[in-house]
């Protein structure tokens, strides 16, 4: 279990090492191509030290990596490309967003698939503005109204990944408690339930409800998110949210355990069609 930046360094290093091998270069030969000492390449590949986005670009050029999507992902893993004069939208909120949240947003923006179990609130990618506002106020009630509103805008901006040219594939399992909790009051909840039904019509979004009638299940351990990425099969990470930070699980056995748990919960949950009928019934009474 590691914090995001440590996971990113290790994943980035492993991928750069694999690309160097595909290029047929030793670490010493790679270092010579970019004018470094061999030890710097070794430290980067083992994740022992951070690496600037510009250094990643140098290595990718040396390894003749032309895939723009892969290059972009590896730059994001390096911590962003702001030093090269390029800015992602969340950089405008750097003074407001904690580093852990920025880290999560940057990874989410590059993911091709997200699987999530939610046991308390609707996931941010599907929240309405009013629902997001109520959640933000509850979690960070001491913030002034203008900062709360800025955080709501961040949450809504994150949802663009569902409308991009290559949209994120989102699979969500919602505990019934999420659908009954009166976040923001009855009217806000009713609007949120309508939003869930609308989102489910998108071909890349799959929403299932885990009803109380399902009884005990492995999801009682709490909410989690599994992020998957294109081009790098072993980059998947599990994200667990805590009050003041997020923790990342990257070991193969952890990934398998959470993937198996998600698959099991999908089997226990209502089908997508039945889930939408269930949400519609709850919405009528909300």
UniProtKB/TrEMBL annotation:
Coiled coil: none annotated. Residues 16-71 form the HTH cro/C1-type domain. Pfam families: DUF5753, HTH_31. SUPFAM superfamilies: lambda repressor-like DNA-binding domains. GO terms for molecular function: DNA binding. CDD domains: HTH_XRE. InterPro entries: Cro/C1-type_HTH, DUF5753, Lambda_DNA-bd_dom_sf. This is Helix-turn-helix domain-containing protein. It comes from Streptomyces typhae.
């Amino acid at each position: 279990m590691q914090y995001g930046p440590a996971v990113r360094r290790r994943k980035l290093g492993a991928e750069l090492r694999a690309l160097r091998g595909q290029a047929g270069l030793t670490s010493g030969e790679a270092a010579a191509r970019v004018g470094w000492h061999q030890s710097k390449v070794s430290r980067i590949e083992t994740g022992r030290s951070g690496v600037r986005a510009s250094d990643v670009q140098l290595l990718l050029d040396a390894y003749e990596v032309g895939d723009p999507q892969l290059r972009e992902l590896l730059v994001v893993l390096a911590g962003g490309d702001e030093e090269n004069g390029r800015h992602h939208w969340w950089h405008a909120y750097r003074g407001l967003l904690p580093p852990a949240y920025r880290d999560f947003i940057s990874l989410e923006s590059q993911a091709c698939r997200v699987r999530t179990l939610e046991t308390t609130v609707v996931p941010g990618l599907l929240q309405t503005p009013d629902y997001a506002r109520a959640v933000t106020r509850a979690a960070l009630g001491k913030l002034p109204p203008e900062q709360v509103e800025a955080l709501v805008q961040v949450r809504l901006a994150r949802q663009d990944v569902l409308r991009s040219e290559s949209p994120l594939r989102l699979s969500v399992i919602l505990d019934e408690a999420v659908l009954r909790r009166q976040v923001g009051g009855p009217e806000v909840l009713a609007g949120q339930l309508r939003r869930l039904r609308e989102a489910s019509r998108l071909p890349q979004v799959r929403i299932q409800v885990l009803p109380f009638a399902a009884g005990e299940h492995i999801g009682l351990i709490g909410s989690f998110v599994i992020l998957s990425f294109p081009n790098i099969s072993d980059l998947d990470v599990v994200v667990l949210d805590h009050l003041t930070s997020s923790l990342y699980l990257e070991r193969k056995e952890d990934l398998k355990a959470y993937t198996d748990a998600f698959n099991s919960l999908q089997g226990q949950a209502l089908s997508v069609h039945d889930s939408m009928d269930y949400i519609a019934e709850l919405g009528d009474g909300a």
